[in-house]
Design a protein that fits this description.
By secondary structure, the protein is α+β, with helices and mostly antiparallel strands. It is built from 11 helices and 22 strands. Helix 5 packs parallel to helix 7, helix 6 packs antiparallel against helix 7 and helix 8 packs across helix 9. The termini are far apart.
Length: about 500
Amino acid sequence: MRADSPDGRGDASSQARASVGLAVLGTDMRYLFADPVYCRVSGEIRAGLEGRAVSPRAELTLGPAALVAAVLADGRPRTHVTPVSRCTWQQLTIRGEVAGLVGLVVESLTPADRLYMADAADRIGTTLDERTTCLEVVSFLGSGLADAAAVDLLPRETQPGGGPGVERAAVAGHAELLPPYPPRAVLRGRTDLDEGRLAVPLSIHDHVLGAVLIARASGTFTERDLLIARSAAHRAAVAIEHARLFGQAQRTAVELQRALLTDPGLPHPNLQLATRYLPAGSGDLVGGDWFETVRLQLGRTLLVMGDVMGHGVEAAVDMNSYRSALRDVAAADLPPHRVLRRLDRDISDASTRRPATCLLARVDPARMLASFSSAGHLPPVVFSREGVAHLVNVPVGPPLGTGVGGYELVSRTFDPGDTLLLFTDGLVERRSEDIDTSLARLAHVRPDPGGTLDDLVDEVLHEVDAAHAEDDVAVMAARIRRKPAPDDE
């Protein structure tokens, strides 16, 4: 499909319809100048081009480095030809001294071809979902270039080999025109053209992800068709690779955050605990939600629910700092409002930390009592044994990290079978909805009175549709264990 010609001759009529670009290289084979047309045709990035070497991507259009070096060495012009362009290199001399090279690239694509390929750029890879990308490819190629199109993907864990290991991810048009599997040569990175069938590798950085197959009921494919198919396959390969890298990063980040959150410490045996963390379905990979439990003296347990403002890795790092600092302060067994006061003072001294909301609940099972203090956090909910929910009215102080202080303490007794639920705002907050309405929706949840603590948490998450929350969701539920009566022993 590509030829290197020493004489540089070509079809004059095709050149007359083409765009022409110019570049100058120095004797070190690095750019001294390149005009916009040259950069567009070659794929070079114009910004900061001076002083750079010809990129490997541009060599596909301009010719290999050995061809260009040969022109510099012996002064004989050479031309590199592709189905859509031709580039001629000539030695540049000034006063008899070799000063570098001049490259003249001629594009043979018609304006209609350029528009068609630009359409591919707009229609392929619009999401970070590889299945969607595959559907976009077959839709684009099957709508004007062929009577049938398919994308076959190789399993990620195996080496290219064809056969049943290849999965047909998407197909459009008359599928019976397509082969059941791509040719083995394509899965090794080579194009395969056979009458009305064309197969091009779906590859990026010499790594083959699969193949794009197209077929016609009659007629053969031209070099223009091959160019368009390759362009579509390349764009699809880039999009699929990005989708996979994004998915891998998301899974790693979620597992990292879950690892941080699913070990909140062990409460005293007199307290049952159930926790959940649900990452938001979109947006940043990790956030600043966290929960914690700290054992105190006399059988009491401090429950912590916090949320660092903002999202992303920085918020997660600050979350871990808050969590560590709180463990240190809580070890002094201070009342919750004094814990918040000291934590606010310590964190505000580190000006780089983001503010955070935090709710503390010190549970005393022996007295069936809980003491609460809030730093800008939403109030907890108590579900009675019958499943009726009540919001606990906790005075709200400023978020942690502001240095303002001013936290209050409020206490509440528990009845046997009551369940305390702490949560971050992602559980209830919805866009364009007043927070009171959001909290009221939670208060109307009626979990099964006979369910376990885990059942209650799952039912709450289901009833408020937490799976589609707009923010990360962290939930912690606690229930005082009933002491066995003498008759039960």
